[in-house]
Amino acid sequence: METGTLVRNELAPLLDRLIVQLEDEGQLTYRAHFTRIRTRLIRAHSDWELASPIIDLSAANAMGFEFSNTADALVTRILSKSMGLIRQINGIDQIRH
User: Fold this and answer.
1) Nearby residues of 55 by Cβ (< 8 Å), 6 or more positions away
2) Residue range 37-83, pLDDT digits in tens
3) Domain range holding 86?
4) Less crowded by CB within 10 Å, the N or C end of the chain?
5) What total of structural domains would you count in the chain?
């Protein structure tokens, strides 16, 4: 399966759920942030173009976003899924020491 398709299939539905949740909570700034990420993810045509939105997913923690329990669970799931996809794309298995 093409990398872009794999990433979109795995992350877009979770991002959609998060965006709806943030809108329901009135967190419009957060919703805008994740909507931009989703849009860039959908438009990506190469691994290079996929890298930026995936990196931006983790920026929410650095930006100090505070989420409800429901939104936080979705963000955690998205981050976990994105890290797994990065390892899968790069062919990296868990490193054993």
Assistant:
1) none
2) 999 999 988 878 888 888 888 787 778 889 999 999 999 999 999 88
3) 3-90
4) C
5) 1
